[in-house]
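Forum: Protein Structure Q&A
Topic: Joint prediction for protein chains with partners

I've read a bunch of threads here and the consensus seems to be that you should model interacting components together rather than docking separate models afterwards. I'd like to see that in practice. Below is the full input, 1236 residues plus whatever partners are listed. Could one of the regulars post the assembled result?
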Amino acid sequence: MIDRNFKLLTVVTEAALENELTEALDRLGASGYTIVNARGRGSRGVRDAGWSTSSNIRVEVICDALMAEKIADYLQEHYYRDYAMVLFISDVGIMRPEKF
Amino acid sequence: MIDRNFKLLTVVTEAALENELTEALDRLGASGYTIVNARGRGSRGVRDAGWSTSSNIRVEVICDALMAEKIADYLQEHYYRDYAMVLFISDVGIMRPEKF
Amino acid sequence: MIDRNFKLLTVVTEAALENELTEALDRLGASGYTIVNARGRGSRGVRDAGWSTSSNIRVEVICDALMAEKIADYLQEHYYRDYAMVLFISDVGIMRPEKF
Amino acid sequence: MSIDPVILFFLLGLIAGLARSDLRLPPAIYELLSILLLLAIGLKGGMELSQQQMSSVLPQMVAVLAMGFILPLFVYPVLLYIGRLGRPDAASIAGHYGSVSVGTYAVAVAFLASAGIAFEPHLALFLVLLEVPAIVVGILLARGIHSGTRWGKLLHEIFFGKSIVLLVGGLLIGWAIGPEGIKPLEPLFIDSFKGVLALFLLEMGLIAASQAREILQRGIFLVAFGVIAPIPLAICGALLGWSLDLSVGGTALLATLAGSCSYIAAPAAMRIAVPEANPALSLTASLGVTFPFNIFVGIPIYLEIAKRLHGA
Amino acid sequence: MSIDPVILFFLLGLIAGLARSDLRLPPAIYELLSILLLLAIGLKGGMELSQQQMSSVLPQMVAVLAMGFILPLFVYPVLLYIGRLGRPDAASIAGHYGSVSVGTYAVAVAFLASAGIAFEPHLALFLVLLEVPAIVVGILLARGIHSGTRWGKLLHEIFFGKSIVLLVGGLLIGWAIGPEGIKPLEPLFIDSFKGVLALFLLEMGLIAASQAREILQRGIFLVAFGVIAPIPLAICGALLGWSLDLSVGGTALLATLAGSCSYIAAPAAMRIAVPEANPALSLTASLGVTFPFNIFVGIPIYLEIAKRLHGA
Amino acid sequence: MSIDPVILFFLLGLIAGLARSDLRLPPAIYELLSILLLLAIGLKGGMELSQQQMSSVLPQMVAVLAMGFILPLFVYPVLLYIGRLGRPDAASIAGHYGSVSVGTYAVAVAFLASAGIAFEPHLALFLVLLEVPAIVVGILLARGIHSGTRWGKLLHEIFFGKSIVLLVGGLLIGWAIGPEGIKPLEPLFIDSFKGVLALFLLEMGLIAASQAREILQRGIFLVAFGVIAPIPLAICGALLGWSLDLSVGGTALLATLAGSCSYIAAPAAMRIAVPEANPALSLTASLGVTFPFNIFVGIPIYLEIAKRLHGA
Ligand SMILES: Nc1ncnc2c1ncn2[C@@H]1O[C@H](COP(=O)(O)O)[C@@H](O)[C@H]1O
Ligand SMILES: Nc1ncnc2c1ncn2[C@@H]1O[C@H](COP(=O)(O)O)[C@@H](O)[C@H]1O
Ligand SMILES: Nc1ncnc2c1ncn2[C@@H]1O[C@H](COP(=O)(O)O)[C@@H](O)[C@H]1O
Ligand code: NA
Ligand code: NA
Ligand code: NA
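Posted by a regular:
Agreed with the consensus. Here's the joint model:
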C-alpha cells in the first residue's frame, strides 16, 4: 500500500523568498508543498530574527525523482548564488501515489 | 550504536485534528510524537492562515516498521477521505532503540 | 549533481538547551543547522507550552557520516541522561557538497 | 446614517487582501484580539447584569434558547432542496447560520453606541445562549440521533470551546465584581474596545478577501444565500425581541444575532463532527458573504426593522 | 476581605484548564504580557524612587540581599531530610523558593492598592535584589564550590536573563525620567496594568491546571511543602521588613516576596546548571501549588502578619 | 535639551543585546507594534488633514515627491566612487537612504511634542510620498531600465507592501472620520502611542545590537557613511521644507525624513529586485548606524537647522 519511489525535497532559505518560491513550485508542476518558519546558521551567517529579512523558511515538497531534479535545478539556477539556501533530498514512501 | 531499523512517519494535516490525532497515537501505542505548526498547498487548496480551521500541523512519529504501518492504515481509514492529509515514511537510524 | 553521501541528523529536545546546543555544534565543526519550534510527547511526558521550560525545539544538521556520529556521540554523552531528547539520522542527497 | 469608523478597517483589510498586499496579522495577534473582544463583551454584560433582577430575565432566556434550536431547521430545507446541497453540507451550513457571530455582535454594539441607542445588558447573555444549540441541531441533521457520534466528547468540546469559556467567564467575573470592581480593568478591556475591534475587523477583511476566489467558484447560489438568508433570520429575531418586550436597541441586537452566523465555534465543531461537509462552502458563505453583508447593510436594516416594530 | 478581581481570572484559567478547554494564550502573547508587567513594575518603582533619598535605602538593600542568600538554606534541609529528595532536587527547589515570583508580587501590589494601603517604592528594588542570590545558593548546594560549573557563563545568564534586564531597565528608566517623563507612557504601562495582570493570571491558571496530573502523582509531600513552606518564609520576610522599619504595606510586600517562589528565572537557570534535578518537581510545587496558594490565601495572611507586627 | 524617555528604551535594548541577554520580543509582537505605529501615524495625520484645505498642499506634495526621486542620486556616486562598493550594493544602499524610516519619524514626532513644537498635519502624507520613489530609483540604478526586471510585479509589491497600505489606509480612514470619529479609537491608537513606540524602540535596540559584529567587520567606511550621510540629506530636506514655507516643526520633520533611511520597505524590495546586493551591508548601515545616530544625535540637530533657517 506504500509506494517507495518518491522523493522528499527540502529547502531551507530566506523568508523573503516565500512568494516567489511557491509561485515557482506551482509553475513547475509540484502537487503541493509544506512550509514552516525556521531559523538557523549557514555560510551566510546566523539567520534568526522576528525580522523577516533575516529569518528562514523550511519548504518540503513530495514528488517523484524527475520533479525533484527539476525543482533542484531551477533553484540552483535562480537562487543559489545570491540567496541563503540549502537543499536536500531523501527517499520516502507514500500512500495514495496518484495524488502527487 | 545507531540502530537503522526504524521508521520516521510524517503526517501533514489540518490543525483541527491535533487532539484527535494525538489521542489516536497514544491509543495505537506510539512511544511519542513531535508537532510543528505548518502551512501549505495540496489537493485541497492553500492552507495558510492564523485561523486554525485553515492551517496545518506537521506530526512526526519515530517507530518500528510495524507500528508505522499500523498508524498509516489507521489514518488512511479514518481521515484520508474527508481531511486534508499527506503522509510519508522514511528510514531513519536512531540511538537508544529501547526507547521507541 | 546530487551527492548522496550525506546525513541529516535531527534532534528534538528542550527549548532551554538551544544556546548550549548551537554553541556545541559550532565547536564540533558543523557547517550549519536549522531550528524550528516544536511540541510533543515522549518518555518525559507531554512538552507543549508557551512556557520555554516545557517546550521543544527541533534541530537539523546536514553533514557527512563522520560528523553525524561525532555529534550524536557528543549529545549522547552530555544530554541523554538528564534532558528530554530524541535523535535520528537519515540519508540525504545534497547539492553543492563543498558547502558542508 | 453614517458608517461606523471600525467598518472602514474591514474595508481596508478587504482591499489590501484583494490587492494581494503582504499585510497580515500574525495568528497570535488575532488570538489576542478575539480573547480581548470576548472578555470585554462578557465583562461589560456581566457587570451590567449585576445591577438587574435576574428573575425577569429567565423566561426570556428560555425563549431565546428555543429560537437557537429552531432557526437551523428553517435554513436546512432551503439548502437541501433549493440549493441542492448534499445532506452534510446543508446540515453544516444550517448549523453555522443558526449560531451567532461575536464579531457581528460587536459591530452592532458599536453601531448602537454611535447612534446613542441603549439596549438591555442581558443581550450578552443571549449571545452565549445562541452559540451552541444550532450547532447541536446541525450535527443532528447531518448524522441523525442514532449515529456513532461521540456526543459526550463533542458537547464537551463545544461547551468548553474558548469562545464560550471566555464569554461565560467574562460574564461571571463582571457579574461578581460589579461596576466598582471593573474600574481598574477598564483601560484595557473597555476603553480600548473599539480600537481592538478595528484591528479585529482589519484581519476579518483580509480573511474575507482570501475567500474571494472560492466565492467566484462556488457560483451564484452561495452568494445569494449568504445575502438573503440573514434577513428572514433577523426578522425572526426581531419578532422574538419585540414580543419579549425588549427595547428598540435590544430588539435590533437580537435580530442581528439571529441574522449573523458563526465562523469560530461552528466551523471547529463541524469539522470534527461532520467531516464529510466541505468546510470551504460554509466558511465562504459565512465569512466571505454574510459577515460583510451584515456589518455594511444588515445591521442598519435590522435597526430599522426594530424601530418599525416598536412603532418608533 | 473581598477577593481582588484579577484573581478571578486565575480561577477562570484554572477551571478552563481543568475542564480541558481549548482556551490557550499564544506563547507570543504570554511573552508580551510578562514584558509589560516587568517593565511596569520597574518603571513605577523607579519613578517613585527618583523622589527619594537613596542613602537611607542602602542599608536596607544589604539586609534584603542577605536574606536572599539565607532563605534557601532554611528550605534545603527540610527537602533533603524530611522530603527525602535527592541532593539536586532539594537544592533546585530551595533555589526556587528562596527566589521570588513577579506574578505574586504584582497580585500583592494590586491587593494593597485595592485595600488602600501604601508601601515604599523601593520594594520594586527588593524584588530585583531577591531574584538572583537564592538561585546561586541553590546551584552551590547542588554542585558544591569546586565543581566544574562554568560560573562566569552561568552568572551572566542569570543577570542578563530577561526578567532582571526588564526590571532593572525599567527601574533605571523610571528613575531617570521621573513622574513627568512617565506620563506619556502611563496609558500602556500603568493604566493597563490591571488588565494585563488579569490576562497574565488567566494564562497562569491554565498553566497551573496543566500541572494537575503531576500534583496527583507527586504525592502528598510536595503539596504539603508547597502550602506550608511559604508561611515561615514569609514570616522571615515580615520580620525583616518590620525590623527595617518598613510600613505595614512594605512589610506585607517583603513577606510576600519571601513567601513567593520563582517560576521564570530559577527554572531556566536550574535546568542548565543542575540538569540532574527533575524540573517537573520544582515547577509543580512552585506553579501548581505555591503560586495559587499565595494569591488566594497567602497574601491576605501576610498582610495580617504585617499588621500584627506593627501593632495595628 | 533633555533626552526623550522613549529613546532610553532603545538604549535598554541595545545594552541588553550587546550583553547577550536572552531578552527578545516575539516576531508577532514586533508585527503588532509596527502595525499600531503605522496606523496611529496615518490616523492622526488623516484626521488633522480633514480639517485642512488640500489645494495648498498639492504643490508641496509634488516637490516632496521630486525630492524622493533625487536624493538617492546624491548618495549613489558617493558609495560607488568613494566607498568603492559594487554597483548593486551602491544602488541598494542609495535606495535605502533615499527612502524613509517610520521609526525615526515617530521618534521625531515624540521629540517635537515634548518640546511643544507644532507641525503641519501633512507631514504624515510626506512620509508616505517619500517611501517609494527612492526604492524605484535604487532598483533602476542597479539594473538599468532595459533589464529583465518585472516592474509590474515589483511596483505592486512595493505599493501594496504593508507599510504603505497601513499608512495610506490610516490616512484615508482618519481623513474620513475626522476628529469626532477618531475619539473612540484614541485609547488604543493615540494614547498608547508612546508606550507602543517605547516597546518598538526596545526591539530596535536589540536588533541594532545584533548588527554589532557586522559593523566591526565592515570597517570604517560603512560607519562613517552611516553617520555622515544623514546630515547633508537632512539639510536638503530642511531647505525644501523652508522653501515650501513649512513651520519650524514641519521643516525639522521633513529634514528628519530626508536624513532617515528605510529598514522595512527598502530591504524587502531590494532583496527581491537586486539579489546580488549584500543585504547585510545596507541593513547594518541603516539599522546599526544611521537609525541610532538619528534618534540620539540627528533629530536635535535637524531641529536646530530648521530653527536657524527660520531665523528663530
Ligand atoms: N549544515 C547545515 N545543516 C542544516 N541546515 C543548514 C546547514 N547549513 C545551512 N543551513 C540552513 O540553511 C540556511 C541558509 O544557509 P546558507 O546559505 O549556508 O547561509 C541557514 O540559515 C540554515 O538555516
Ligand atoms: N506534494 C506535496 N509536498 C509537500 N506537502 C504537501 C504536498 N501535497 C500536500 N502537502 C501538504 O499536505 C496538506 C494537505 O494536503 P491535501 O490533502 O493534498 O490538501 C497541504 O496543505 C500541504 O501542507
Ligand atoms: N517516538 C517519537 N516520535 C517522534 N518524536 C518523539 C518520539 N519520542 C519523543 N519524541 C520527541 O522528543 C521529545 C523528547 O522526548 P523524551 O526525551 O522521550 O521525553 C518529545 O517531547 C517529543 O517531541
Ligand atoms: Na444566526
Ligand atoms: Na521566596
Ligand atoms: Na531618507
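The beta strands of chain A are 3-14, 33-42, 45-47, 56-63, 85-94.
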